[in-house]
Design brief:
Mean pLDDT: 91
Oligomer: single chain
CATH class of the largest domain: Mainly Alpha
Pfam families: CHB_HEX_C_1, TPR_19
Organism: Dorea longicatena
Number of strands: 17
CATH superfamily of the largest domain: Tetratricopeptide repeat domain
Domain GH29D-like beta-sandwich: 167-227, 248-314
Order of helices and strands: HHHHHHHHEEEEEEEEEEEEEEEEE
Protein name: Tetratricopeptide repeat protein
Structural class: alpha+beta
TPR repeats: 84-117
Strand order of the largest sheet: 2-9-8-5-6
Helix content: 25-40%
């Protein structure tokens, strides 16, 4: 091989090498361009995706830009109204603006349309906890299907049990016992108002006294989730005294007499001398009454602390 041939081959090798290098450079540039395009498309897809809208809304919420945050969360809902993150974010926007009612309506309206959306129920429950409205959780789950409640056992609290049946009339003071599942506390009221954790805490039997008594009770688990309230009403009617003993007996008298009524403990006596029936509006007996001259119809009655009235005792006196 002569010198010219070697030079020609060397030039050809150099040309091929440069060509390969150029092709590699083009391929690299093409790959980088494709990666850039894919990245741009990916970023655009992310920014216009459900998660992208939610994250953008959360960032706007962090800087207190409630208008943009609401727009972002609603945009996310338009893309997918079954996922909970956008509802949670939008509820926080409303809460930050002191509009808890609007936040609650957001969840209630959505759950009416999505009765089997377990994650939406979870988000609603967390909203109630976040807004210190734990008492609304049992009502929410009471209206849910068994499919939902079976998936949320940590939020389902059984109501307390009562030892006495309501609807009966008892003739003696009763002791009412309340029981709940292990670890749960019981709170109750006797004033016909629904109980909260600020009501009476049950520690010992409740005395049901004479008259009508209404007991409301709830059980509360360790997480502070209450049960639905249970209401039971009781009536205790203690035996009433017979008509009061009045002395002296009916009759004619020639000398001044004092009329006395025997008043048992826990009772008040009332009387009339004008033939009318005695009531609590009549004259209250405080001690012996001087018998009037002439003919007198004296009537007396006993009234206990609960306002129950005994029979009437009548005496016919004539003082000459």
């Amino acid at each position: 091989m002569n010198e010219d041939e070697r030079r020609r081959r060397n030039r050809e090798r150099a040309r091929q090498k440069a060509l390969r290098k150029k092709k590699k450079k083009r391929a690299l540039l093409l790959a980088l361009s494709l990666l850039l395009i894919i990245g741009i498309v990916g970023i655009f897809a992310y920014m216009t995706s459900y998660i992208g809208a939610v994250n953008k809304g959360n960032k706007a919420l962090e800087r207190n830009d409630y208008t943009e945050a609401e727009d972002c969360f609603r945009n996310a809902m338009a893309k997918d109204d079954t996922r909970p993150e956008a509802y949670t974010g939008l509820s926080k926007v409303y809460q930050a603006q002191d509009n808890t009612e609007k936040a609650e309506r957001l969840f209630s309206d959505a759950l009416k349309k999505q009765e089997d959306n377990i994650e939406l129920y979870r988000a609603c429950i967390k909203f109630y906890i976040r807004s210190d409205q734990n008492e609304k959780i049992p009502e929410l789950l009471d209206n849910a299907t068994s499919t939902i409640t079976d998936e949320l056992p940590e939020y389902v609290v059984k109501t307390p049990k009562f030892s006495l049946d309501d609807g009966e009339v008892y003739d003696d003071v009763q002791q009412l016992k309340l029981t709940a599942e292990s670890g749960n506390k019981i709170y109750y009221t006797k004033n016909k108002k629904k109980p909260t954790t600020g009501s009476h805490k049950y520690n010992s039997p409740i005395q049901i006294e004479e008259g009508d008594t209404t007991i409301y009770a709830i059980a509360v688990n360790k997480a502070g989730i209450p049960s639905l309230p249970v209401k039971k009403s009781y009536t205790v009617e203690l035996p009433i005294e017979d008509a009061p003993a009045v002395s002296p007996s009916t009759g004619q008298y020639s000398t001044a007499q004092e009329i006395e009524i025997k008043v048992p403990d826990g009772y008040t006596a009332y009387y009339t001398t004008d033939k009318s029936e005695p009531t609590t509006s009549s004259t209250k007996y405080t001690g012996p009454v001087e018998m009037p001259e002439g003919e007198t119809i004296f009537k007396a009655v006993l009234v206990n602390a609960k306002g129950r009235v005994s029979g009437i005792t009548t005496r016919n006196y004539v003082l000459n």
